[in-house]
Specification:
10% of the residues lie in helices and 17% in strands. The protein has two helices and five strands; from the N terminus they run E-E-H-E-H-E-E. The protein has a five-stranded mixed sheet with strand order 2-1-5-3-4. Strand 1 and strand 2 form a beta hairpin. The chain is globular and about 30 Å long. The structure holds FE2/S2 (inorganic) cluster.
């Protein structure tokens, strides 16, 4: 499932103008470094175009990140922590912050992967929480 949520405020995002890398730190394996090609965004229909979820699921990075609502800011299963490069991402909307409140183990660098769009000015690093692997999956 993909698309947009008509009931939430539309986030202001800036898509990257040059390639940059996203390093995914996974709880169940070695880190994966993926280079984002701005000319190919969006990679797929799930999450905001160019979002961390879009990159993880559709970009070829092959990261199995949970996304129970289909990437429309209506759950909190895509919670990740942006441990490097958070300043290069769009500001979270109030709707995103409301959903994040439902996630366990949130911190100041917590974001919803489907709503967090890096602008590509710096390489970023993302930590996938261990509990993310144990939730109900959609479409797998
Ligand atoms: S997938 Fe549901 S909020 Fe991101």
């Amino acid at each position: 499932m993909g698309g947009t949520n008509p009931y939430i405020e539309k986030p202001e995002t800036g898509l990257p103008q040059k390639p940059y890398t996203v390093t995914f730190h996974r709880p169940d394996g070695p880190a994966i470094v993926f280079e984002v090609d701005p000319s190919k965004l969006p990679y797929g229909p799930t999450g905001l175009p160019g979002s961390i979820l879009d990159i993880a699921l559709n970009g070829g990075a092959d990261i199995d990140l949970e996304h129970a609502c289909g990437g429309v800011c209506a759950c909190s299963t895509c919670h990740v922590k942006v441990v490097k490069g958070l300043d290069s991402c769009n500001e979270p909307t109030d709707d995103e912050l409301d959903q994040l409140d439902e996630a366990p183990d949130i911190s100041l660098n917590s974001r919803l992967a489907c709503q967090c769009v890096p602008n590509g000015t710096v390489d970023i690093e993302v930590e996938i929480p261990a509990w993310n692997k144990n939730l109900v999956k959609e479409g797998h």
